[in-house]
Amino acid sequence: MAAAALAPAQGANLEIGSFKGRSTICIARVCKHYQLGHVIAVDPHTSPAPTDPDLCGEQSSFGEFEQNIRNAGVADYVEAKRHYSHEVGTDWNKPIRFLWIDGDHTYEGAKYDVDAFRRFLAPGAVLAMHDVLGTHYGSLRTFVEEVLDSPEFGPAGFCGSIGWAQYRPKEGRSVRYAIERRLLAIPARRMIPIAQSGRGLVGWNKLWYKIWRPLAPHGPVNPRRFWGSLIYRG
Known about the structure:
This protein is an alpha/beta fold. The protein has 10 helices and 7 strands. The chain has one domain (2-230): 3-Layer(aba) Sandwich (Rossmann fold), CATH 3.40.50. It is 42% helix and 18% strand. It has a 7-stranded mixed beta sheet with strand order 3-2-1-4-5-7-6, with helices on both faces. Helix 4 (85-91) runs parallel beside helix 5 (107-118) and helix 5 (107-118) packs parallel to helix 6 (137-148).
């Protein structure tokens, strides 16, 4: 919510992966309060899906999604697209101010979502991804290699299992931001083999996880400091 509210850029608010609407509601409430436009919520709402929670026999999460956003009073601020992200990405042509990625957690799926929509990020936009500091191999590897290793991004960080970075293509190569991103990437990169093994947090995996995850700062975001890091003058 802080990233959606404070991203200092003009453009669309795009969510990849909505499920039953929890994150959609959070982003839409911010957009409604600050008049930041709609949330474009992309999710096919199908089941079963390899990386989605089980719907216990239901064929779609869309009914609950619609009910939840209505109950939250934000239905008028949500534009739902019942498509896969690759279907939306084919025709996408709008600048993006805030990009929330929480869809396909496989490496191929997460990498596609970053690659397809990164080129539409407006300078100053914020990209945020879920499950990038844990045992989801695809999201973790994608955030490290396609975001933290990329000179197109400036300020970056973790909050819980969420990773975020601000799109600053003209400043990302600076020594300051290159060092900041590299320091974040070191412990996260060490966790990639743990996630890739598929064995979960047992044995040596659990030990190395407990060593490396605390070395990636991932505490709560201080909104004032967060805003200070995002100030962008182009």
